[in-house]
Design goal:
This protein is mainly alpha-helical and 90 residues long. The protein contains five helices and no strands. It is 51% helix and 0% strand.
Length: 90
C-alpha cells in the first residue's frame, strides 16, 4: 500500500500532504453505502455522486459550490470533475 501511495506522488496524482493524512485501518471500501431517494425537479443543476474519499475532505455544500463555480467558469463537466478530485487530493 505504501508503494502505491509513493508512486501516486511521483506521477503527480496526489501530494505528499495528501498521503500523510492517509491511514489504512481495515477494509478500503465501505460495503454499506448511504442511499437517499429524492425527486429531481427541472431546476436541478447537476447531480454530484462521490465516494467517502471526497466526503472525508470536503463537505457537501463546499463540493457543490466548487462544482457550480467550475461549471460557470468553463461549462465542462469532465474538467469540473477532475478539478474537484484534485482539490480533495491537495
Amino acid at each position: 500500500m505504501e508503494r502505491m501511495l509513493e508512486k501516486g506522488v511521483e506521477e503527480g496524482r496526489w501530494s505528499q500532504k495528501f498521503i500523510s493524512r492517509i491511514q489504512f485501518n481495515g477494509d478500503l471500501v465501505a460495503a454499506y453505502p448511504d442511499i437517499f431517494q429524492l425527486a429531481l425537479g427541472s431546476d436541478a443543476e447537476f447531480l454530484l455522486l462521490a465516494s467517502d474519499g471526497l466526503w472525508d475532505y470536503m463537505n457537501s455544500l463546499d463540493a457543490v459550490a466548487f462544482v457550480r463555480n467550475q461549471l460557470r467558469q468553463h461549462g465542462d463537466v469532465q474538467i469540473a470533475c477532475e478539478a474537484l478530485a484534485q482539490a480533495a487530493l491537495v
